[in-house]
Design goal:
Elements: H1 2-10, H2 15-26, H3 43-49, H4 51-59, H5 77-83, E1 92-96, E2 99-100, E3 104-106, E4 116-117, H6 119-132, E5 138-142, H7 148-153, E6 159-160, E7 175-176, E8 181-183, E9 185-190, E10 206-210, H8 214-224, E11 233-238, H9 241-249, E12 255-259, H10 260-269, E13 273-276, E14 283-285, E15 288-289, H11 294-309, H12 315-322, H13 324-327
Parallel strand pairs: 1-5, 1-6, 10-11, 10-12
Antiparallel strand pairs: 2-3, 3-4, 7-15, 8-14, 9-12, 9-13
Length: about 350
């Protein structure tokens, strides 16, 4: 039955889905993308070890999406260091995903040697154009979910633009831009599944999440508080969200919990799965940078202001191109509110 359901799920996928299945079957559970940085350990252990820190950060934090600096176009030390890179190295180094459909992925059918495409990738090109005068002056690094913060802290990347939720735990470790997208956690499961949403129908079900993700920390906290059935198995974590979809197709888990925006893209890849129930959180994506990179944070915030105003080639145009097919033509529910800043310039 598993093999039959897997074969059925492949119909209509195209190149992106084929990539996912090849990753699963050839690399087994290893990543099928080039990674930056050290090997990946057990995401559950990392999350559990830092739970006390997370809880303390959340106690001291309110409205994390507002904990950012006001916009500025000025060059500071961080931006100048980027501009001073020599020759071919004069590029913005950005951590991204390359297997999140319509966000950051390599489209083998693009006819352009499978260049990176998607909503997040458009934003990266806009930032590079503003800072370096060339939208293609970017060095992309594929970063798994649980390596986003270490990659920033270790200086392997200048920033991460990778459907990264701004939350209280993370703003203790990295600086965020103002929000550039609004979403919320949702359940993804086979259409034939009795799972109805984030409720008691998840009892005795196996859920997959990405290690180090907001989804996992939310499930862990809700199960501890009795909001999620104690019998729900949340032990399956993977380096990247697409790996969860593959686990679901192989019948190794019963549902996936991830950002609704990503879940909708995964449902578009596989017609045998669908979103179950409404989003049960409200979250915002932001560009993540080093804590002391104030000038870069301010510059990105200014770029976001201009990007949202640019109706021809900005946020709305990118949404229409990449996300309207999966999230609907009305972008209002995905557009974040007017930004609020920590302090004025």
């Amino acid at each position: 039955m598993r093999a039959q359901r897997l074969r059925a799920s492949l119909k209509g996928w195209g190149g992106v889905a084929t990539m996912a299945v090849v990753c699963a079957l050839v690399a087994v559970f290893a990543l099928c993308v080039p990674l930056s940085g050290p090997g990946i350990g057990d995401g559950r252990a990392v999350t559990q070890a830092s739970q006390a820190t997370v809880e303390k950060a959340e106690e001291d934090c309110e409205a994390p999406e507002k904990q950012t600096l006001s916009p500025s176009s000025a060059d500071g030390d961080t931006i100048q260091e980027i501009k001073d890179r020599d020759g071919e190295k004069r590029k913005l180094i950005v951590g991204v995903d390359q297997n999140s459909y319509r966000w950051g992925y390599r489209n083998p059918n693009s006819g352009k040697t499978a260049e990176l495409e998607g909503f997040d990738i458009d934003l990266v090109h806009r930032i590079a154009e503003d800072i370096l005068g060339d939208p293609d002056a970017v060095q992309f690094k594929a970063i798994p979910t649980d390596q986003r913060i270490p990659a920033i802290q270790d200086g392997r990347v200048d920033m991460v633009v990778r459907t990264m939720t701004i939350n209280c735990a993370r703003i203790a470790d990295v600086a965020f831009s103002a929000p550039y997208f609004k979403t919320g956690q949702q359940v993804l499961a086979p259409k034939s599944s009795p799972v109805k949403g984030y409720d008691d129908t998840l009892a005795d079900r196996r859920i997959c999440t990405a290690a180090g993700s907001t989804a996992y920390s939310t499930l862990e906290a809700d199960q501890k508080d009795g909001k999620l059935p104690a019998s729900t198995d949340i032990s399956t974590t993977v380096p990247n969200q697409l790996d969860c979809l593959v686990r679901l197709q192989l019948g190794e888990v019963d549902a996936v919990v991830t950002d609704g925006a990503l879940a909708a893209s995964q449902a578009a890849q596989d017609p045998t799965v669908q979103l179950k129930g409404d989003a049960f959180t409200a979250e915002y994506y932001g560009v993540a940078m080093k804590k002391d990179a104030d000038d870069l944070v301010r510059r990105v915030n200014q770029i976001l202001v201009d990007y949202r105003k640019d109706t021809a080639n900005g946020w709305q145009a990118s949404y229409d191109k990449w996300l309207s097919a999966t999230l609907g033509k009305d972008a209002k529910k995905s557009e974040p509110p007017a930004p609020q800043y920590l302090r004025s310039t």
